[in-house]
Design goal:
single chain, about 500 residues, alpha/beta, 5-stranded mixed β-sheet, about 35% helix, globular, binds FE(8)-S(7) cluster, binds iron/sulfur cluster, Nase_CF_NifB, DiNase_FeMo-co_biosyn_sf, iron-sulfur, metal-binding
């Protein structure tokens, strides 16, 4: 299927801003397809309504919509062995520099500034840098004020679960319909290896007793959310040798209690972060170990595989972080919310999504009907919009898809260091990129030079820029069909 080339860059760049303004000023819908749905056939309409613009709860939406976190909740009631309080919460963030902590009023200013400038913004999350439910007054005050200013932004909370049952009713009252609980164990003996202590009901608990209380509160919180129809995602940190096999049990427990998604994330462990695991040499899993566990979990609670382990002050599409553009010193003291850019973006993106979904199902149908039983791992350089639209040398991550007789599925991403630095690249950086692409069969990008292409080939990885600006699934379907003996051009005609 041929399709108009609309990348996220073009949707948000200068050329597109004219279209946005024209559309916003026309007062009418620019879309030619008002009223028709982009909902996939296998998703319940009520669920689709909740997830269709949430970049974390819908893999499809993450190509188009952005989240932002405001770091209003620094206090925490749990100690995790993968966390150092000097850094962001590792539940929902990559340990890094300390966040700019915000008061609720500062947070509201920041949300308005981002909403005025980032048309993809759809979700406001509070993910620390401590625990959003333990530091509840600040979380609640922030949500209440943001909703008054920007009523159509979705509210999202991430928590370790210990204080969650105390606030489920208030979350429901505030229409928070997306909650994440980090659950790393359902066996307190395993939990004691992850949590040295918790602070609960005015006292500190340690060891197995601490883990048992945490486990009971997490299960209670999950059941309460499910009973109220609030969508719950479970984040689990995969810690090799500690809970990796145990996460199969965790997946069963949370599925039974109504979890909507299970997101298994790799432990990030580095001595420089000063965490217990970092300092004691506990390693994280590699990409293939992650994939192997996720593959074993298929058939249980539905998996999220597109998490980017973002910071507690992240801003932008998943995989990008524009937080540094919106530090407090860059935000005016007085701000008025302007809905124009966000509304115009939504209208235009609706057409693009519909077109992509049609192309996607055509490509998946073709892959399913080819006689080949093989599986192909494809790494895609993309800036968003569901298209092959990034240069190999500019990529900071590759999205990984698996094409197989069951279809084309997003299975994860590989972070890399940007190889091209304006016309030249370090060999050592390229070596790192190639190492990160271990197990990949084909790389798709909009442009690649002969040097990296040859070195990828030496490592057994084919790279092509022949599908630049195509939809990702269309390109993968064509390659899969061609490799299965169906002529590529016939396949994509
Ligand atoms: Fe933020 Fe989390 Fe809400 Fe998303 S993040 S509070 S559900 S809006 Fe998303 Fe980031 Fe992964 Fe979290 S990619 S770490 S899953
Ligand atoms: Fe750190 Fe978050 Fe664990 Fe608290 S819940 S110790 S902030 S990772």
């Amino acid at each position: 299927m041929s399709a108009p080339v609309i990348s996220v860059e073009s949707l948000t760049g200068a050329r597109f801003s004219d279209q946005l303004l024209a559309s916003a000023n026309s007062g009418g819908c620019a879309s030619s397809s008002c009223g028709s749905s982009t909902r996939p056939d296998d998703v319940d309409p009520a669920i689709w309504d909740k997830i269709k613009d949430h970049p974390c709860f819908s893999e499809e939406a993450h190509h188009y919509f952005a989240r932002m976190h405001v770091a209003v909740a620094p206090a925490c009631n749990v100690q995790c062995n993968y966390c150092n309080r000097k850094y962001d919460c590792a539940n929902e963030s990559r340990p890094g520099v300390v966040s700019e902590k915000l008061t609720p009023d500062q947070a509201v200013r920041k949300v308005i500034a981002v909403a005025n400038e980032v048309p993809q913004l759809s979700v406001l999350g509070i993910a620390g840098p401590g625990d959003a439910c333990y530091d509840w007054e600040k979380t609640k005050a922030t949500f209440e004020r943001v909703v008054r200013e920007i009523p159509d932004v979705k509210l999202c909370v991430s928590t370790n679960g210990l204080a969650l049952p105390d606030h489920v009713d208030e979350l429901a009252d505030m229409n928070v319909d997306h909650v994440t609980i980090t659950i790393n164990m359902v066996d307190p003996e395993v939990g004691a290896k992850i949590y040295p202590w918790i602070f609960y009901d005015h006292r500190r608990y340690v060891g197995v007793q601490a883990a048992r209380i945490l486990h009971e509160r997490q299960m209670l919180g999950l059941e309460m959310l499910s009973a109220r129809g609030i969508l719950t995602k479970i984040n689990s940190v995969m810690i090799p040798g500690v809970n990796d096999q145990h996460l199969i049990e965790v997946n069963k427990w949370v599925k039974q209690r109504g979890a909507f998604l299970h997101n298994v994330m790799p432990l990030i462990s580095d001595p420089a972060h000063g965490t217990y695991y970092g300092l004691t040499g506990q390693r994280g899993p590699n990409a293939m170990e992650m994939k192997a566990l996720q593959d074993r979990l298929e058939g249980g609670a539905k998996l999220m595989r597109h998490c980017r382990q973002c910071r507690a002050d992240a801003v932008g599409l998943l995989g990008e972080d524009r937080g540094q553009e919106f530090t407090l010193d860059q935000i005016p003291g007085e701000l008025t919310y302007d809905a124009g850019k966000r509304e115009a973006y939504r209208e235009l993106v609706a057409d693009e999504r519909r077109d992509r979904l049609a192309a996607r199902s055509e490509a998946i149908g073709m892959v399913k009907t080819t006689s080949s039983g093989k599986s192909l791992l494809v790494a895609v350089a993309t800036k968003g919009g569901g298209r092959v639209n990034e240069h190999f040398g500019h990529a900071k991550e590759f999205q990984v898809y698996e094409a197989s007789p069951i279809g084309i599925n997003f299975i994860g991403h590989r972070k890399v260091e940007q190889y091209c630095l304006g016309g030249w690249g370090e060999n050592a950086t390229l070596d790192g990129v190639i190492a990160a692409l271990e197990g990949i069969d084909v790389v798709l990008c909009v442009k690649i030079g002969n040097c990296p292409k040859d070195q990828l080939a030496d490592a057994g990885i084919r790279a092509t820029d022949a599908y630049g600006h195509d939809y990702i699934e269309t390109a993968i379907g064509a390659i899969y069909a061609a490799e299965s003996g169906v002529p590529a051009l016939a396949a994509i005609a």
